[in-house]
Amino acid sequence: MSENALQTLGEFIIDKQDDFQYSTGEFSRLLSAIRLASKVVNRDVNKAGIADIVGHAGMTNIQGEQQQKLDVLANDIFITALSQREVVCGIASEESDDFIDIKCGPNGHLSKYVVLIDPLDGSSNIDVNVSVGTIFSIYRRVTEPGTPVQLEDFLQKGVDQVAAGYVVYGSSTMIVYTTGNGVNGFTLDPSLGTYYLSHPNMRFPEKGKIYSINEGNYSKFPQGVKNYLKYCQMMEGDRPYTSRYIGSLVSDFHRNMIKGGIYIYPSYANAPTGKLRLLYECNPMAFLAEQAGGKASDGFNRIMELEPTELHQRTPFFCGNTEMVEKAEEFMRIDVVKD
Ligand code: AHM
Ligand code: MG
Q: Do residues 188 and 174 lie in contact, with contact meaning Cβ atoms separated by under 8 Å?
């Protein structure tokens, strides 16, 4: 099929605008700002090897982790694109300590949307030329429009998301998102700078055979996770499963959604809530997973129903094919009963 016959992301956004009741085009403009920022980050990620932007920025973020230069750059790019285009009234970023209030429009704060973003997830992979990603999550504010945003606008449950998605800066660059009507994926043609609809209505295959977890932490895992891993490795039926772990959530999730698999970042001995952040990483991925026929859990509860209490809250994360996540949950429950 020629590129002329393919639908672009811009056309798709406009086509779907009417899915939103009383749509004013504000949400479409917000998605367009994310699309634009992703192209700028893509350009910078691609030239990371030649420009002097690889390596640490010398700062630590709120989690106490060292920030890579590209983390800082990606954070700036998304915040600038979203705030200057006046499409959101607030932004919370994994890389910033606190949320940002955005006074947009002639009367200030007129947008009804807030965005939570992990601007460059998996950034420890940049130095070695491995795929990284951007994750975003969009909510309607809950406080009065026209006033400064408050913490409660960001501390919403995953079930209240209006849209969520990711950009994977991989062998090709893709943007994948949902507004609650399935998941669609768009691939960037770098020569034209245009995203085309390449993966309409993405779904997890019925059966999955891949498990993705950092097995180096095995000795620190809860017994339920250890038992589930043994189950994955057992020679029986369609098992053993295949182990694949990139260490970039976006890339691991993307592969598992296409090929069928489960991603796990559990709690471990000295980290009872695991590593991943509920608001910036787990909720958006959970929304995508459910919209693609999969499931996301903290081992016991649905991720999107967890009550957030702080911006940088962490949670254990089990996400992927429904059947696989439910099996893992079964092992987690057995472990609790034994205790
Ligand atoms: P980051 O937001 O600091 O990049 O951390 C999140 C990343 C995920 O993309 C990835 O799945 C995980 O951390 C890898 O962690 P580990 O190296 O502990 O396996
Ligand atoms: Mg991250």
A: yes
